[in-house]
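## Example pair
The file below holds two records. Each record gives the amino-acid sequence first, followed by its structure token line.
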Amino acid sequence: MIRPMRRINQALTSEQSQMILDQGSYGVLACLGDDDYPYAVPLNYVYFEGKLYMHSAKEGHKLASISKHNKVSFTVVGNDTVVSEKYTTVFTSVIAFGRASLATGEEHKKAFLALNDKYCADRPDKERMEAALNCNRAVIIAIEIEHLTGKQAKELIGALPGSDKS
């Protein structure tokens, strides 16, 4: 069960939360690690066709944790401006809760291409396609989102695209 947000007036809409996922360049994957310690690792990712995808080495802490317990969360901070004179920050953030697995077959290929499109758009199409199709050193982790929640600083209420006041 996912707890409801305490400050519901600061909640983002589903569309605003998805926009932050689309625009973010990195997030933090949190899972249950060794000896049930939390394990959180920053990663590049892509939000594509309603799922989150990130690449990984074929072995390591992330994959061992996910194979043991596939429930994860992924956090993206969309905005964070320090306002020192008010002892606060103006922020937007999103947390996606879901289940992680390895993408295979066509999903793997499409996700790798989506990652290349996001992070290597300045490279020639042919080069990006070859890189995605020939990369055999990495796997793709897919997160099927079961719950998505977004929050904004109170200073932004009504100011973001998709708000009633925008």
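Second record, same layout:
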Amino acid sequence: MLPASSATTTQRTQVAPESLSWSTIGLYGFPTVAVNFVYMLIMVMYMNFATDVLMIAPATVGAIFFASKIWDAVSDPLVGFLSDKTRSRLGRRRSWMLASGLPIAGFAFMLWAPPEGLSETALVLWIAVAIFGFYTAYTSFYVPQLALGAELSFEVGERNRLYGSRQIGSAVGLLLAFTLGAPLLEHQATARTTAAGLGEIAGLACLLSIVTAVLLLPREPTAAEGRGGRNLAGAMRDVWRNPHARILLFVFFIEMFGVGGTSVMAPYIVKYVIKLEGVLGIVLLAYVLPTAASIPVWVWLARHFERHRLWMAGMAMSAIGYGSLIFLDEGRLGVMLFCSVMCGTGSGCGSTLGQAIKADVIDYDEYVTGERKEGSYFAIWAFVGKLARGPAIPRTSTSRSRSET
């Protein structure tokens, strides 16, 4: 008789195809276009919108965002664990994705379209509810979707393709946020009306794309159902005890710290360091386009080279880009563009091959524990990513307050 882990491996290969169709690959990444558009627009532009248009103190908005990161420490692991334990006709991941669609749309609109005439206290409360609600709904989509990628195929090359598709979708969302959303919101005189319309359209796009993907994607293997962690504490403990997971958590934190700092600080760097008008879109494009263009190259390279070495090369490129920020000064747009290109190209590797490597680490956990805890693993990585990006929010609010003084 086969050991439990070996029996499971044999069983799952009978239900998870070795080769996925291009339609499945594309559908997996499709919802991330709209969802990441909304997420990045909030991350990059909402501080400006709240302070310049809604006239909320920067420190107040920064405190709300920072508190939401503390909530992530609860919501991320909880969603991951519960999705591992879910039993549904739609599957344990797609059911969570579907349930997240309407809240993502509703809270996105709520953020960008607060009613006029609210008192300052009521407006702050409105924003706080919307931010906490949006990030909770976002987690309910983001974590199960990442986990689904590890279950649709157990073949290394197919996982590279799946997470490549997802990252391309994210990059397209970034591109639209930077070229369409950000420029529209830069005009303070019309920003409030524009933001309301943008929030409505973007929220509807999130809902429709999530529903489309959930209905058309193949169901994840049924062999994994009922094989999540025994309890939340035990699942988190297993993640930490996995030596490969600990290494990846450390590496991922470093990478996301740089990504978060530069993306959130970009509008402030352009406005207060480079001091050039109308170039924010160009700077952001210099990050997004290399990210998207590099993904197929990284996936192709992964056929010929070890993925962890490629990830190290990508991180080295990002390090050069982040390190070059010290040379920024007034009018030095070329330096900023160089930093953006290097960081974007390096990020394309970690967000694609890095995710696929995480899926392999989850397979190792199954070998040791006999459980399938994709949700718990990706939840911890999601939280670490948010934790790494979080410190940039209070830094931007402090920088803004000092500049106004």
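Notes on the second record: The domain at 21-404 is CATH 1.20.1250.20 (Growth Hormone; Chain: A;). DSSP finds 16 helices and no strands in the chain.
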